[in-house]
């Protein structure tokens, strides 16, 4: 909103979550969430304004990009804009010594190779121009467009607790939970698993900041939230994202 009002320039943000929280996609049903488990584990909950499936925001670097739809370097189509913005992610992984590749789902064979086993969790199948390393999904992104502005955000997994994720999702049987959990482990991976070491939030932020600069051909300047943005954030929590009407709407 602040960008659409001309208050701030195109912006890339990196942030983390404290305490951890489960977010579900805009169209996802809350029937897929085990709220009793969330409460017992002191994990927050929110519905995203973008699509996709459940993400446990815990040991990750989260990024968001806000840019005008009319920006000359941003393609008008959703898929092509994903491709352009994913170049920043690609370079970020390279900065960490990881060989990521973009997924295109243009052929039936590619679609079949990456099709989802059907769990409520994100990261079990990549979308167009998302990134995989050794065939496994390492980041999940989603995009929405409002008031002439593109918001793309996503989770970059520093580490991954699959048991915790699946413990806060609802399944009709233990057998189904274990089957989908096993399939998920084969399709999702964290930076720690790939690098064979712990990558700190600060190291990852530095890698992806320079990655976005190289991949998008821009220079990122440090900044702080304006007073208008802080006011908007508080207002949105109070009237939208912190309300049952929004979070439990489906």
From TrEMBL:
Domain called BPL/LPL catalytic: residue spans: 6-220
Coiled coil: none
Keyword Heme: no
Record's keyword terms, sorted: Transferase
Gene Ontology terms describing biological process: protein lipoylation
Pfam families: LplA-B_cat
Keyword Glycoprotein: no
CDD domains per the UniProt record, alphabetical: LplA
GO function terms (MF aspect): catalytic activity, acting on a protein; transferase activity
The protein, known as: Octanoyltransferase LipM
């Amino acid at each position: 909103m602040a960008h659409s009002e001309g208050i701030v320039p195109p912006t890339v943000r990196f942030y983390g979550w404290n305490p951890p929280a489960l977010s579900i996609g805009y169209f996802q049903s809350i029937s897929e969430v085990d709220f009793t488990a969330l409460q017992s584990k002191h994990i927050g909950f929110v519905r995203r304004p973008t699509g996709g499936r459940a993400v446990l925001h815990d040991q990750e670097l989260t990024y968001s990009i806000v840019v005008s739809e009319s920006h000359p370097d941003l393609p008008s189509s959703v898929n092509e804009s994903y491709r352009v913005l994913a170049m920043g992610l690609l370079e970020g992984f390279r900065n960490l010594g990881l060989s990521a590749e973009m997924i295109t789902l243009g052929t039936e064979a590619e679609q079949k190779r990456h099709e989802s086993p059907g769990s409520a969790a994100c990261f079990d199948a990549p979308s167009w121009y998302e990134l995989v390393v050794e065939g496994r999904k390492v980041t999940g992104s989603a995009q929405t467009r409002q008031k002439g502005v593109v918001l793309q955000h996503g989770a970059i997994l520093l580490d991954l607790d699959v048991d915790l994720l699946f413990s806060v999702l609802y399944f009709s049987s233990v057998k189904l939970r274990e089957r989908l959990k096993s399939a998920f482990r084969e399709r999702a991976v964290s930076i720690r698993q790939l690098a064979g070491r712990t990558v700190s939030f600060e190291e990852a932020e530095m890698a992806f900041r320079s990655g976005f600069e190289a991949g998008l051909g821009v220079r990122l300047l440090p900044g702080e939230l304006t007073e208008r943005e802080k006011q908007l954030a508080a207002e949105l929590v109070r009237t939208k994202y912190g309300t049952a009407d929004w979070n439990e709407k489906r």
